[in-house]
Input
Amino acid sequence: MPSTTDISDFLAAEFPQTKCRVDAVGGMSATVRHEVGPDELRPGGTVSGPVLMAVADVALYVAILGEIGIVPLAVTTNLNINFLRKPPADRAIVGSCKLIKVGRSLAVGEVTLYSEGLPEPVAHVVGTYALPPDRPR
Output
């Protein structure tokens, strides 16, 4: 299965717009980090919802690639997010993903999002990915 470096290199080549960095992958899980800057804030001095959703989506994708290999055409089919508390503007967002099931055609996982260094989650996400039928098994 691909390493953290393999997946990081793939993301850098195929998704250069992402600011997420892969911290860990393997064992049906992944951890990613997104440094927060002024462009990611919304009025009120907090991290915007689309940034939180993007971090969760990347965490799911990375965890799935860690299980099935680098299969570019795995795509999000559902993403449900619950915003739990206001993430501070001066801390990175960390997404911790655990896959619940990786089947033949779908993968389901959950992501807990944290503000770096704080124990309470800022959001909880459940997502589903469609997996390509012709992927290697």
Residues 49-68 form the longest helix (20 residues). The longest strand covers residues 93-102. The chain has two helices and eight strands.
